Structures are given as structure tokens and as C-alpha cells.
């Protein structure tokens, strides 16, 4: 197996990172717990589930052995191979519509050039991988969800392929660019995961959602029902920068994006979608007016061609990083090889609620 040479290094690396968290690096441990807590709340959400919820060739022995002992991303792996995958596939077109005006920001930031190799983390059904493969020499999409990868593989072609694996722990090899469209928010240990991504040596560009009470992809029903703030660390640019810096990235930038997004056809459609969420259903329980409050909130956004909301995301970037000497193992089958700043972009109509 090509991984044999780097195997010990990876195991030790993972072990160290994991123990560091478990043994409790004070503040970070609580941040990680925050991630876990939010992640467990959200995947029940349907729409938010999409929000929250390994290279390659096959899952490596490292990832397999850790997961089989129930240590890494076990809950997320279960969700994304079960209920979350089912819901995600059922809402694939809706999610594509919601991301339509955000993805160009990601592609611009990634600035993939011909000849470059790209890793798409949490690639899902592979749409971003396929889009990037129009320019890149090769794109590898990595995901823990077999049902979503089955869809992705329909689009597998000469220079794009998909592998099942855990981006937090599996050896990734070397890439010029690491991108992700909302696929990096699910790790048990974000620092360890981003450290693993950094080992690719590639520059980084990913999208994650802003606060769920601000980002109207989720916010309208939550606000209508008086939901408390969600503890989502990725909604905090300071936490994002600290986490990436702890993982060894430098030059991290977090840019706020606001774009109009078509959430669905009409009020009935988007209300039904929102009500798939366990959180929304829990908030609505015992409140006879809940559905009408949600409908009223969506009715304000009804336009002739659908219900439009303002999607609010962060675009996170970091320049090309040096390769770590250790902890990196050779890719499988010629596979992957390889200041803080914040700005704000607002495109589309003022306020972002039109088209
Ligand atoms: C919100 S979906 C985004 C999918 C796709 N990038 C898109 O924009 O349509 C999140 C994806 O991350 C994947 N994922 C979650 N944890 C992962 C991990 N540890 N390693 C690889 N993929 C993971 C899920 O299976 C899911 O496909």
C-alpha cells in the first residue's frame, strides 16, 4: 500500500492532535465541544442539516481504524450516510439555487489555473468539483457520504474523480488548491482537520455560513419563532482565523458575502422545507401560531418568480502554504500530490433581497 511509508507519522500526528483536544486545551476544548454541540443540533434540521450535519481511492487504514473505534466524526459519518444524505438529495436543486450566487465568489478566490490539482473537501454530489475541472488539470472530490458520492460519480470524467474518505484524518497527498463549498464545518476536531488540509501545501478557499439568525437561508423561521442564538463557531470570523492559525495557516482572510438566493417556489414550498427541520419543529411544538408566523415571514419575500432571501456566508482564504515535513503520506494511485484580514462583499441589489 502506498500509505505504508507515512503510516506511523500519520497515526502519531492524529493521535497527538486528538489527545490534545481530549486532554483539554482549555478554550479550544470548549470551542470543539461547541462545534459538536451545534453539529448535533443542526443535522436534524433538513435545511440546516445541509449546513452542518475521506484520500483516496478508498478510505485509508488510519481513518478506518479511528472511525471503527468510534473516535472521529462518527456522528457526522452516520448522518451523511443516512438521514442527512436522504434530505440533501431530496433538496439538491434547492441547495444549488441557494448557492448559485455564492459559488462565483469561491471560484474567483480559488483562482484555479490550468495545470493545477484541486481537492474539493466535502464535495457532496460533486457539482463544484465538476465546475473546477473545466479549468484544473485534475480535481479530486473527497466526502464521507457514499450516497452523495454515488451521485457525484455519475459525473466522473477524465480529470475529475471522487473518493470516499474523511478529510480530517485521511492522508490527502499534495494539491495546489483546496476548496470547499460548505463542506468543512462538520469536523470533530477542526484544528486537526485544517492541519491535515494544510499538509497538502495548497492555497485554501472555502465557504461557510454566517450566523443562522442573520443568514436568511435559515433565519426567517428561526427569528419568527424566537430561536436563541445558535452556537456555531464558523459564524465567528475570529474563531475561524484562530482555528486556521492554530492549524498552521497564515495570511487567513475572512470576507463576508451577502447574496440574494431563491429559496423555493412559494410560501407553502419553503414553509414545508423549513418544517423538515427538527429544530424548527421543536420550536413550533405547542405554539398554535407557529406555522402562520413562519408563513408570514416568508410571504414578505415572495416574488413573482419565487421566494427570495439574503444568503449570508463567509468566504475564507489562505495563500499557498509550505509542506509539512512529517505527517504526510504518499497518495494512493497517483492521487493527490500535490495577518488576518476581513472584508465585505455585497453584490446584487442593495439589501440583497431582489434578483
Ligand atoms: C453541506 S454539504 C456540502 C456539499 C457540497 N460541497 C455542496 O456544496 O453541495 C457538506 C458535505 O460535507 C461532507 N462531510 C462532512 N464531514 C466530512 C469529513 N469529515 N470529510 C469529508 N467530507 C465530509 C458531507 O458528507 C457533505 O457531503
Automatic annotation (TrEMBL):
One Pfam family in the UniProt entry: Methyltransf_25
The record's annotation in InterPro entries points to: Methyltransf_25 (IPR041698), SAM-dependent_MTases_sf (IPR029063)
Which residue ranges does the record annotate as region Disordered? 321-355
Q: Where are the transmembrane segments?
A: none
Q: Please state every residue range assigned to the domain named Methyltransferase.
A: 118-199
Q: Which keywords has UniProt assigned to this entry?
A: Methyltransferase, S-adenosyl-L-methionine, Transferase
Which branch of life, at top level? Bacteria
What this protein is called in its record is Methyltransferase domain-containing protein
Amino acid at each position: 500500500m502506498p500509505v505504508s511509508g507515512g503510516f506511523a507519522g500519520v497515526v502519531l500526528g492524529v493521535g497527538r492532535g486528538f489527545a490534545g483536544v481530549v486532554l483539554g486545551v482549555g478554550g479550544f476544548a470548549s470551542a470543539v465541544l461547541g462545534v459538536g454541540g451545534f453539529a448535533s443540533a443542526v443535522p436534524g434540521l433538513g435545511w440546516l442539516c445541509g449546513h452542518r450535519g475521506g484520500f483516496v481511492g478508498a478510505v485509508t487504514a488510519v481513518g478506518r481504524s479511528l472511525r471503527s473505534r468510534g473516535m472521529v466524526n462518527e456522528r457526522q459519518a452516520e448522518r451523511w450516510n443516512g438521514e442527512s444524505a436522504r434530505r440533501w438529495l431530496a433538496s439538491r436543486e434547492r441547495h444549488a439555487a441557494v448557492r448559485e450566487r455564492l459559488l462565483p465568489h469561491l471560484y474567483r478566490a480559488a483562482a484555479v489555473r490550468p495545470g493545477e490539482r484541486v481537492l474539493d473537501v466535502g464535495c457532496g454530489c460533486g457539482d463544484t468539483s465538476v465546475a473546477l475541472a473545466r479549468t484544473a488539470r485534475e480535481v479530486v472530490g473527497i466526502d464521507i457520504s457514499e450516497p452523495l458520492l454515488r451521485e457525484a460519480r455519475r459525473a466522473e470524467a477524465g480529470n475529475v474523480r471522487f473518493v470516499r474518505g474523511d478529510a480530517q484524518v485521511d492522508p490527502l497527498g499534495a494539491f495546489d488548491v483546496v476548496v470547499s463549498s460548505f463542506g468543512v464545518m462538520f469536523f470533530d476536531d477542526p484544528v486537526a482537520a485544517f492541519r491535515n488540509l494544510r499538509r497538502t501545501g495548497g492555497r485554501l478557499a472555502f465557504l461557510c455560513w454566517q450566523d443562522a439568525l442573520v443568514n436568511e437561508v435559515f433565519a426567517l423561521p428561526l427569528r419568527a419563532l424566537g430561536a436563541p442564538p445558535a452556537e456555531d463557531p464558523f459564524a465567528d470570523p475570529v474563531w475561524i482565523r484562530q482555528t486556521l492559525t492554530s492549524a498552521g495557516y497564515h495570511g487567513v482572510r475572512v470576507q463576508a458575502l451577502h447574496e440574494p438566493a431563491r429559496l423555493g417556489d412559494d410560501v407553502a414550498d419553503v414553509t414545508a422545507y423549513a418544517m423538515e427541520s427538527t429544530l424548527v419543529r421543536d420550536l413550533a411544538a405547542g405554539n398554535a401560531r407557529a406555522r402562520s408566523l413562519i408563513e408570514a415571514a416568508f410571504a414578505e419575500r415572495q416574488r413573482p418568480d419565487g421566494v427570495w432571501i439574503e444568503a449570508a456566508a463567509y468566504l475564507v482564504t489562505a495563500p499557498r502554504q509550505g509542506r509539512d515535513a512529517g505527517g504526510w503520506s504518499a497518495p494512493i494511485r497517483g492521487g493527490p500530490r500535490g495577518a488576518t484580514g476581513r472584508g465585505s462583499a455585497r453584490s446584487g441589489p442593495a439589501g440583497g433581497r431582489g434578483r
